[in-house]
Design brief:
about 130 residues, alpha/beta
């Protein structure tokens, strides 16, 4: 569902993650900014305070995730199963400017993603 505005990634953007596994997934995404934008968002492990928060939510269906992007802080990525943080981060990657895939510094790019809400879950009880 589309929202209003966009979320801007900057050198001051902080990802708050629950554990090292989430930090590793986020680091792969943050490294894309290092090469393409010339800055790297920060990661705080074990923190609930950040611009982007990754949370495990037992209330979600198995194999699902919820991604809420707003123009304000506290963009939220919630999943029930740890491995689906990767898929949520891939959704953000796909929403990012194409220049993030260039692997080299690109000037005059607004490092933003649109405000929206996504809930992704399998149609059936299993995924192939």
């Amino acid at each position: 569902m589309p929202g209003t505005g966009h979320f801007r990634f900057t050198a001051k953007t902080v990802f708050a993650v629950e554990n090292g596994e989430q930090a590793e997934t986020v680091q792969q995404f943050a490294d894309l900014f290092t090469h393409a934008a010339g800055f790297t968002p920060r990661i705080k492990t074990g923190s609930k305070s950040g611009d982007v928060r990754l949370l495990t939510d037992a209330a979600l269906k198995p194999e699902s995730y919820r991604l809420e992007i707003t123009s304000k802080k506290n963009k939220c990525i919630c999943v029930r199963c740890r491995r689906f943080f990767f898929y949520a981060m891939q959704s953000i990657r796909q929403l990012s400017p194409a220049a993030i895939e260039e692997g080299q510094m690109t000037k005059d790019v607004a490092w933003t993603v649109p405000a929206l809400a996504i809930t992704d879950s399998p149609r059936f009880d299993y995924r192939d």
